[in-house]
Amino acid sequence: MLPGWLWWVLPLIVTAALYGLALRRTAGVAAGGVAVAVALSAGTAIALGEPARSVTGVALLAVGLGAVTWALGRARRRGRARRLALAAYRAAAPDVPGVAAEVERHRLAAELHDTAAHRLTGIVVGSASALRLADQALVEEAARHAAETGRLAVEELERLTAADTPAGRGDFADLDALIATWPDPRLSYRRTVGSAPPEIAAVAYRVVREALTNALRYGPGGDVRVGVEREHGRLLVSVVNTPGDPVVNGGDVARGLGGGHGLAGLRAATAACGGSLSAGPEGQGWAVRAELPLAPEDRPPSAPYSPYSPYEWRGRQAADVALAILALALSVGTSLVTADVPEALPGEAALLVPLFAAHALPLALRRRAPLAGLAAALAVCPLLLAAGLAGWTTQPAGDVFLWCLWVELALLYAVGAYGRPALRRWGAMAPTAVAAVGGLALACGPGITGNRPAAWAVLAMGVAVPATAMWALGLAVAARRGRRRTAMARERDLLGREAAAVVLAERSRLAAELRRTAQRHARAIVVAADARRLDDVLAEARAGLAALRESLDELRLQGDDPPPTIAGIALLAARHQGAVRYAGTRRAASPSVEVAAFRAAELILRHGGPEVTVACHADGAAVSGPGSPGAERRLRALADAAGGGFSQAEDGTARVWIPEVLA
After folding, report:
1. What residues contact 256, with CB distance under 8 A and at least 6 apart?
2. CA triplet 166, 167, 173: central angle to 5 degrees?
3. Of the residues 152, 164, 401, 663, which has the maximum number of CB atoms within 10 A of its CB?
4. Structural Rg of the chain based on CA atoms
């Protein structure tokens, strides 16, 4: 027989252990600990020879206590993650303007690489080949081509140095024109697709242009095959070139003129629209292949999890479900283990257990539908009163109401804290309804004699005091939460305006530098080409390319670390030579979602692969990408601490869901 004090100490030790487990481990591990504790409690009762009713009651109480302990530990774990995220978010705020300027530099570098650098490379190769062969007809053709291409380069540089530089758009007509004006005659072109979405056609154009430019630089004079075809609802773009003939085509005049980042930029562009890119040796030559979607996907790869998904059991609804379990365990479990439970009515348990369950379960709707949950819980009290008056139960409705009053108080708090603003005027009647129902249940008790209506009024006023206090507390918490959101929105707005000003200043500085160097050389190319001075054309084109390369090297210099935000994932991907795809409508998220999404993308890019997808939704964000054993455990822990979930598809894609959570 155990000493009496152990009956109090052992539950405290087990509760503390379960709380620590829920605080430091994932939801599944902590839930396993609760299951073990419940099994040990029931086993102990059986070993002590308790009757089946008492064993059931002990198990129910253990379930209720374990569920609440689990939920409290989980809430503390999520709260700590939110506080750390907010601290990281605010600590990185001073770096946001500088990082925004770096993102703008990366964007401008990609534009320069894809436009002006491409034009100047074609001029260098064409001019050098014509001069090497010393053919007057070729010289005339090269000069004409240089003049046309130089003017295009000037126009593109003027667009890039303007105050507003929207991203370029392309279509298959642009692609056809590119092929038609290409200086290398050993080019074959096959296009079997009539049309494509503008953003897809633009990416296809970039892929072909970059691959052709690289073929000119590293394999001049070789055969080049360009294909744009449809296969299984996807657009397939391929550029395959064979080794060149340096004797005929001017040797390696264009070698070393590239920036070394073209394929990385293409990989990012193809991933951003849901496609993929591969580049590498094929036979004795080189092949670049892109696969792009021809129609928008019906659903982004990281679609949001439903609010009723399995992940909610470990997230924001966990505390509510735990409260419902506790309410049911206290009402039913206590009745079962209490020694003086009357045995006169064999059907009483069959009546009370469903009523207790109906009274407890609305707690699971505490955040989703607090007013409806309160109405459902209050509806049980008249049923208990009617059962007592009819003699179906010996449990006085007033005693049951007092024992379970905390359920109504918890729901009243939720009405004030989580109720929708449109229902606030009805929420103001909630304390009155609880007071009226509670006063009626108490006034009909066996201990009340005399004027029962007067007793009802007095008892209702007594119940109204804690009921109104809990409702007002909920309103105060909701108001404080609203003030925090307003302050955070104001901070984000100020930070966004500061970042926009820094980006504009950086764009102006870079525009002035480009006008002084690359644009000046491009204009000189046009003048020399019109005068048929091909030597000067070649010299200016090479000087312009050298200036562009210096500018590109400067533009790609790394500054501060990317801020832990959803927008900062783009710069993070660029630094990892990877790509990010944003799906869904970009919207402002709480710091906890922003930071958790950034950390998940960082783990995927560092351990999984070069591509990551971020899907933004009204109730959270989803991050997905190639999974890896090295990142799985950390991704699972990160999602768990955020109250979300982690899953891995059969193809190895890791998905992390991070929900928005009301504090």
Report:
1. none
2. 120
3. 401
4. 35
Contact present, 394 and 348 (Cβ < 8 Å): yes
Q: Provide the residue count of the chain.
A: 663
For residues 219 and 575, the model is more confident at 575
What's the CA gap between 514 and 521, in Å, rounded?
10
**Residue 66 to residue 36: CA distance in whole angstroms:** 10
CA 334/CA 432 separation, integer angstroms: 29
List % helix, strand, coil for the chain (3-state, nearest 5).
65, 10, 25
Pairing status of strand 224-231 against strand 234-241: antiparallel
Global pTM? Answer: 0.70
Residue 4 has pLDDT above 50, yes or no: yes
- Distance (Å, whole) CA 142 – CA 123: 8
d(CA 571, CA 599): 13
Could you tell me the CA-to-CA distances from 285 to 184, 257, 577, 581 in Å, in that order? 17, 20, 24, 31
Cα distance between residue 466 and residue 197, in whole Å: 62
Token duo for residue 337: 């283990």
Q: How many other CB atoms are found less than 10 A from the CB of residue 313? A: 13
Sign of the C-alpha dihedral computed for residues 517, 207, 149 and 115 taken in this order: negative
Q: Dump strand ranges (E) for 283-375.
A: 285-293
- The first and second tokens of residue 335, run together, are 């009745």
Percent share of the chain, pLDDT over 70? 85
Question: Strand 187-191 and strand 224-231: pairing?
Answer: parallel
Q: Name, in order, each residue with C-beta under 8 angstroms of 195's C-beta and a sequence gap of 6 or more.
A: 171, 172, 201
| Dist CA 294 CA 197 (whole Å) | 7
- 250 within 8 A of 127, measured Cβ to Cβ: no
Q: Which residues contact 118 (CB under 8 A, 6 or more apart)?
A: 209, 210, 213
Q: Which residues share a beta bridge with 228? A: 191, 237
User: Cα(138)–Cα(129) distance, rounded to whole angstroms?
Assistant: 8
Pick from 132-146, 398-412, 544-558: least confident: 544-558
DSSP 313-328: GGTTTHHHHHHHHHHH
Alpha-carbon span 130 to 534, nearest angstrom: 9
Give CA–CA dist 572/99, Å, rounded.
10
Separation CA 118–CA 389 (nearest Å): 91
Q: Quickly state the pLDDT bin for 123 (edges 50, 70, 90).
A: confident
Tokens of 14: 């087990």
Number of C-beta neighbours around residue 87 at 10 A: 12
Dist. CA 173–CA 189, nearest whole Å:
13
Going by C-alpha positions, the residue among 216, 110, 227, 117 that lies closest to residue 172 is 227
